[in-house]
Amino acid sequence: MKLIALLLFIIPSLVFSQDKNSACETKVDTLTNTLYYSNVDVSARHIDNRNSLFKEISQKVRVSQEAKRMGLDGVKLLAFYLITEDGDVTGVRFIRGEDQLANKEEIKSIIESKKWKPAICNNEKVTSTMMFTMQLCYK
Q1: CB proximity list for 89: less than 8 A, separation 6 or greater
Q2: Where are the domains of the chain?
Q3: pLDDT digits over 16-33, tens only?
Q4: Which of 1, 3, 17, 65 falls 20 to 30 Å from 55 in CA-CA distance?
Q5: How far apart are CA 51 and CA 30, in angstroms?
Q6: d(Cα 126, Cα 3) in Å, to the nearest integer?
């Protein structure tokens, strides 16, 4: 009976006392060669209203001549980037839609200029990833 009681207290304490670091999975970004966390306790958050990023990009975007020639009426823009532990943006790359942009470097600089509250993992600020998605309609 004492053995059963002992097991009932020891096993749960082993299960619940596992290292919190196991939840913080790290990967290496192949573009910047930067270590980032893909699984965090608290995600990075935009300091300004996130809608300000959408609004600024939608006001600045220019359609490429190729997209106009093809008669496209819209494009889905996908951008992937890292948010550093300082809240800066780095490693911006377009996954989809960059061919339809006449000013992709300007859009990239808008994304890079925004400041973020960094992600938190085990009570420490860490570098994490962010995906920006926007549907642009030309007509």
Answers
A1: 81, 82, 83, 111, 112, 113, 114, 116, 130
A2: 21-137
A3: 434 444 478 899 998 889
A4: 65
A5: 29
A6: 44
**Does the structure show a pLDDT above 70 at 15?**
no
What are the φ/ψ torsions at residue 8 (nearest 5 degrees)? -65, -25
Beta strands at 45-46 and 116-117: parallel, antiparallel or unpaired:
antiparallel
Distance between CA atoms of residues 79 and 36, nearest Å: 17
Phi, psi dihedrals of residue 74, rounded to the nearest 5°: 180, 170
Global confidence as pTM: 0.75
Cβ atoms of 81 and 92 within 8 Å: the answer is yes
To 10 degrees, what angle do helices 104-113 and 50-60 make? 160
Burial of 100 (0-12, 13-18, 19+ CB in 10 A): buried
